[in-house]
Write a structure and sequence with these properties.
The protein is an alpha+beta fold. 39% of the residues lie in helices and 18% in strands. It contains 12 helices and 16 strands.
């Protein structure tokens, strides 16, 4: 069964009419169509990035309610070329230049891009041949958006052979390299280079000359750890990693990407490790029902009730008599999920106060599975 969804971002007056146009087309084809509306943007942040994140979230919510397992997106070859051009401007590495994947998972939903080999004009030709009308988004001509500027730059350099086909070929080549790097990163996880404990990821701070793992593999694992622990769509920028290394030259803790990175001292050269934990301040105000996913990854199981909430444990770690016996650092436990009834602590499974509850941080899959899903 095919279902369709349109997102009205509420940013243009024409959007409502365009969604209605799609609704009429779907009705003519005999399949369901729904319109979801984005509300609540406070005007902060990058508009296109915020709209994109909202769009994916709304689509995932709709899919969950509609029983949809796969969602097909309409990105084309031109979108891919523009993405690579923008990432070139940011001096992106292999992952960035690999462009948009044909298949990926987000918010527990499989998304595919079946039109990624076709250009926009290919689609227009197809529609004209069948007498099907379409809408053009006027914001595609707005130079205030980076993607529009990238599109115009592509047009200007096409005489040099730098066109959509060329940049898509670059993306394909980089995607092949990314796949190989991910393969070897996964091998190192399976060999025990990365250790998962209480929802944290523990990695070597640097590799020993006697254990010759390339720095790139360790960097990929660190970035994956940040995303697995804190969520988010993109790993920290290279400049943020450099700042972290500088800061930790004189300290043992640093926050990055919604995570707390803590050095674990070793008694031998090259034996120091880094523990990637969730930053408490990132979740201190996060609350939800106990039968819902918390912080994008924690799933709790126990005697659920409407008057219970899941919130971060915070300073109430002191009220867990066995928290030291868990061997888990206090910072990690503070950011772990706890069950509350108003201000009364009911359970904190990660901190040893179970009271019939368990907590698992595998909503995004285990760490190895997460590496392969990106």
């Amino acid at each position: 069964a095919i279902r369709a969804v349109s997102v009205d971002h509420g940013l243009r007056a024409e959007a409502r009419t365009e969604c209605a146009f799609v609704n009429a087309f779907c009705a003519g084809g005999g399949f369901a169509h729904e319109i979801v509306v984005w509300v609540g943007w406070d005007g902060s942040g990058n508009l296109q990035a915020e709209a994109r994140n909202a769009r994916y979230g709304l689509i995932a919510e709709w899919a969950g309610q509609a029983g949809v397992d796969w969602v097909a997106l309409g990105h084309t070859r031109d979108d891919q070329a523009e993405t690579v051009m923008m990432r070139l401007a940011r001096a992106s590495g292999v992952d960035g230049l690999a462009g948009m994947p044909h298949r990926f998972e987000r918010d527990g939903l499989v998304m595919v891009r079946p039109l990624l080999r076709l250009g926009r004009e290919d689609l227009r030709v197809y529609l004209r041949a069948r007498g099907i009308e379409w809408c053009e988004d006027p914001s595609n001509e707005d130079d205030s958006f980076e993607r529009v500027r990238a599109r115009k730059v592509l047009g200007a350099v096409s005489d040099l052979g730098v066109d959509a086909e060329t940049l898509v070929a670059v993306a394909d080549n980089m995607a092949s390299v990314k796949s190989a790097l991910d393969h070897y990163a996964l091998q190192e996880v399976e060999r025990g280079l990365a250790v998962v404990e209480a929802g944290d990821v523990i990695l070597p701070e640097r590799m020993s000359p006697t254990y010759p793992v390339p720095h790139e593999i360790l960097r990929r694992l660190f970035n994956a750890a940040i995303l697995w622990v804190a969520g988010g769509d993109y790993p920290p920028r290279a400049s943020a990693l450099v700042e972290m290394e500088k800061a930790m030259a004189g300290a043992d803790k640093h926050t990055i990407g919604g995570c707390l990175v803590t050095r674990i001292a070793g008694d031998k050269p090259y034996s120091a490790r880094l523990r990637v934990s969730r930053e408490f301040n990132a979740v201190r105000s996060l609350a939800g029902a106990t039968d819902a996913v918390w912080d994008g990854r924690w799933v709790l199981d126990g005697p659920h009730a409407p008057d219970l909430q899941v919130r971060a444990l915070g300073a109430a770690v002191k009220d867990c008599p066995d928290w030291r016996e868990t061997g888990v650092p206090r910072d990690t436990l503070m950011a772990s999920p706890a069950v509350w009834r108003d201000e009364t602590l009911i359970a904190a499974p990660v901190a040893g106060l179970e009271n019939g509850w368990t907590a698992s941080a595998t909503r995004r899959g285990n760490f190895a599975e997460f590496l392969l899903s990106r």
